[in-house]
Amino acid sequence: MSPHDDQTAQEYWEAHYGERERIWSGRVNAQLPGILAGVAPGRALDLGCGEGGDAVWLAENGWQVTAVDISDTAIGRAAAAADARGVRDRIEFERHDLSDTFPEGTFDLISAQFLHSTVRLERPQILRNAADAVAPGGRLVIVDHAAPPPFSKKVPHDHPFPSPEEVLAELDLPDAQWERARVDVVERDGTDPDGQPFTWRDNVMVLRRRA
């Protein structure tokens, strides 16, 4: 049994964001700029936007963004960041528990960056819903942790971290409609809370819906 089983997902994430005034760095996630290099901007959906680092970066680079999170606190911080950087008019914020509801419409880019949770998250169904909402010619971008950081105290030892091939097998998207533009594991440098270096491993999956 998870230690969070007595909390709803929204309660858990509100408590998480309430721990500190800022949880994340405010910068775009590391893999996204390279993935989108040379891609013409259009309509983007940011799943689990947190405090807005990716949504703001996308808006600054010409995308019209719908940014979604379960936490009102996170959305408030993301909206404040968008205001501060002059792109609030390019981002629409919506609160969703993606296990239950999903934004309407279709998108040229749907980004799921580190969409992990130790509380209820119907991830396979969410990613299938995301695939259904990608416009022809658009991209579904999934970036996952390949494993938990060694210093993590919140991730149960049996929490799953599926490989890229396992994620794609679960999605089971038809080859006639989808192209695997990129599927690999990428290493990047990081530091632990004590400032010591360690290596992150990210699963990167870029799927393009055939036009």
From TrEMBL:
One Gene Ontology biological process: methylation
Classification via InterPro entries: Methyltransf_25, SAM-dependent_MTases_sf
Keywords: Methyltransferase, S-adenosyl-L-methionine, Transferase
Coiled-coil annotated residue ranges, if any: none
Keyword ATP-binding found: no
Superkingdom to which the source organism belongs: Bacteria
All residue ranges annotated as the Methyltransferase domain in the record: 45-138
GO molecular function: methyltransferase activity
Record field: transmembrane: none
PANTHER family (alphabetical): METHYLTRANSFERASE, UBIQUINONE BIOSYNTHESIS O-METHYLTRANSFERASE, MITOCHONDRIAL
Name the UniProt record assigns to this protein: Class I SAM-dependent methyltransferase
